[in-house]
Specification:
The protein has 245 residues and is α/β, with parallel strands linked by helices. The chain has eight helices and eight strands, in the order E-H-E-E-H-E-E-H-E-H-E-H-H-E-H-H. It is globular and about 45 Å long.
């Protein structure tokens, strides 16, 4: 597995034993967007679940809100989203792992659909439909449309769609590739496809920030993402085709 050990402090260790769900949220240095997400999770998460905040580097871990101390943990990890998510997965006690970006926001149906999905017996890699918040240009709605078509038709969801899969499947797939500088979520999906793991929509939406489109411009950001996706997907598609022959 291309994973780093969970090297930081584990505050508020909950009772040992398997849980149904571990929510893993990697945080960039200085990231604050996780606080509204944490409030949403605290209100609706089932009792047999936990939330793991994975901080980058050796920064001090902030105190946890007292209202969520029974289900919220935080650890430190070497920086890099792939490393942080792998560290969170290694520390997790849940049978299902849900990887959520810090700027994601739950919609009214998100948690109900999540619970239905994790109660199923079949192994699968789940994803949510994507929507963007209003902190970016209106054209970002087109990107959300494209992402949802890509996910359902081409079976290529990305990390901002809240990838969800059983912990034993994540381990068998080798975790996120820590050698790449971007697209570790994209590559995990391709690995799952080669392994025959179904890529399935959860049946609800997850909202994410459109701030990158506002910061760097809609066209520049969109064209860059399309290009990076293409150059990463092309060799993966060829490999998948060879292996299925």
């Amino acid at each position: 597995m291309n994973a780093s050990p969970a090297s930081g402090i584990d505050q508020d260790t909950a009772a040992a034993g398997p849980l149904r769900l571990s929510v893993i949220v990697p945080l960039a240095p200085g990231e604050t967007a996780w606080r509204p997400l944490l409030d949403q999770l605290a209100e609706g998460m089932p009792d047999d679940s936990e939330v793991i905040l994975v901080h980058a580097g050796a920064q001090a871990l902030p105190p946890l809100p007292s209202s969520t101390r029974s289900t919220l943990r935080q650890i430190g990890s070497p920086p890099g989203r792939a490393r942080q998510q792998n560290s969170g997965a290694q520390a997790a006690r849940g049978r299902w792992l849900w990887f959520v970006h810090a700027d994601s926001r739950l919609q009214p149906e998100t948690l109900a659909a999540l619970q239905r999905f994790t109660q199923r017996a079949d192994d699968a890699l789940g994803f949510f439909d994507l929507s963007f918040s209003r902190d970016g240009p209106r054209l970002a709605a087109l990107n959300a449309c494209g992402a949802n078509l890509r996910s359902h038709w081409l079976k290529m969801p990305f990390g901002d769609q809240g990838l969800l899969l059983p912990a034993h499947c994540f381990t068998a797939l080798g975790g996120f590739d820590e050698r790449v500088s971007y697209g570790e979520d994209h590559l995990l999906v391709w690995t799952a496809r080669r392994a025959g793991l179904p890529i399935v929509g959860v049946g609800a939406a997850l909202q994410t920030s459109a701030r990158k489109y506002a910061r760097h411009g809609w066209w520049r950001t969109t064209s860059r993402h399309l290009w990076l996706t293409l150059i990463q997907a092309w060799p993966q598609w060829r490999r998948l085709r060879r292996e299925r022959r």
